[in-house]
Amino acid sequence: MVGLFPNSTALCQAFTPTSPYYKPAPKPTENLEKRRVFSSWSAAESAKDKAVELSEAAQKEYEKASAKAQAKVGGIELYSAKYYAACTVGGILACGTTHAAVTPLDLVKCRRQVDPKLYKGNFQAWGTIARTEGFRGIFTGFGPTFFGYSVQGAGKYGFYEYFKHLYSELAGEENAQRYKTTLYLTASASAEFIADVGLCPFEAVKVRMQTTIPPAYSGTMNGLSTITGKEGIGGLYKGLYPLWGRQIPYTMMKFASFENIVAAIYNYLPGSKSDYGKGAQTGVAFVGGYLAGILCAIVSHPADVMVSKLNAERAPGESFGGAMSRIYSKIGFSGLWNGLPVRIVMIGTLTGLQWMIYDSFKIFMGLPTTGGAPEKKETAKIPPDSTAHMANVSHGRGGAANIGPDSLAYADGGIVREGPVGDQGDGPYSAGRGGVGNIEHDAKPTSATPHDTDVVPETATRIAKVESHHVGRGGAGNEQHIHEKKQDSLLDKIKGFFGSPSVKK
């Protein structure tokens, strides 16, 4: 039976064209150049896969270390002592390391501020310093820079978080949101005022080391002891006023502009801040910090020049005002801007890295990053005829405009339940007692025994007009997961402690 059917070779010969003009297509030869290209591509893919593998392993190790650190410290509650301690450590890491890393730039900047003709450019300056003072000479002032700005960073970031929360409490939630830029400015100024007291002694040593050739001191401790031995403790603080003049505007611009720039970035990006991962949030922190740093450099540069001049040229016993006048008459207004381009590059990079390191440390400790637009809150919509949430009655003081014409009164001392819709149609309704400020001319007691001395019972049915909207604080039972929570200001708490004025019934 096998011989009855042709095999594959016979079929191929039978159907192959027999024309003399027909030539079968030659078998394609391999392109050696292409093989080389694809070999390189394969190697690149292999390297990429290896890099991704290492990155994932590093990410796992980071998360493991972060979880271990958080477990060791315990839960960190916002605005607790642990929270401020974590912010302080983050400030040390952010400021001490970054300022020390740019010591070569700072060295050239300080020397050019004192003598603009000393160097023609940065690279020429570094080459000259390396030849005359050795490679270590490029890092002159590294020690006092690291210690001084570590102390300053601890105070700056730690106290900023503290004062920002304190002033928010004093202003109240609504005012804090409305005047948030003013809040950032005052909190950062207060923090920097304290932080500079710790920075000033180290800054004096740093500037004198960097502006004298060869350096006046062999190290940080030698500089501190030499200055105090010759001039007393006051010698370490004779640059404090100009330091405040430089650092306070700098820090005010640094924090206020950063907070607003980061909020603007998240407002521009789709979604909310919480939609982005840790890497993206630290990237936003760097961009916001770099842009803020450019503004900081411009605002604080004249004072920075004067600090360098005062520490280098102020004579013992010379008054602050006299030294300022003498130096200004010598350098003029244009002299106050010597070295600005270098400082813009330095401060921009510095500030961007500081915010990135600071927020990275906060993420490492399980804390939210700094700045960003507030999360959008959604309000539940309840149709007018809905009674599904009728049981959601709370016993507290009525919130703003909670009481509508359809509300019901209870005869138990003034508890009022809002109707299904309320004046604003804002959904889940609340019941509460009217506070002292809620009483209108049409309010009548429903009971002779109110629950609290500062609460007057009122009727829920009233004239529906804007002037009659009741203003008070919602009770704890009013707060649901869809409600935006209101926090009493510290002033409200103080008023509550001393008691509200009595109301005649």
TrEMBL record:
UniProt keywords, alphabetically: Membrane, Mitochondrion, Mitochondrion inner membrane, Repeat, Transmembrane, Transmembrane helix, Transport
Task: Supply the PROSITE patterns for this chain.
Answer: SOLCAR
- Might you report a single GO cellular component term? mitochondrial inner membrane
Gene3D superfamilies linked: Mitochondrial carrier domain
Instruction: Provide the protein's localization.
Output: Mitochondrion inner membrane
Query: Which protein, by its recorded name, is this?
Result: Mitochondrial thiamine pyrophosphate carrier 1
Instruction: Tell me its family.
Output: Belongs to the mitochondrial carrier (TC 2.A.29) family.
A Gene Ontology biological process noted in the UniProt record is: mitochondrial phosphate ion transmembrane transport
Which domain of life, per UniProt? Eukaryota
General function of this protein: Transport of phosphate groups from the cytosol to the mitochondrial matrix.
Q: Where are the Solcar repeats?
A: 82-166, 179-264, 280-364
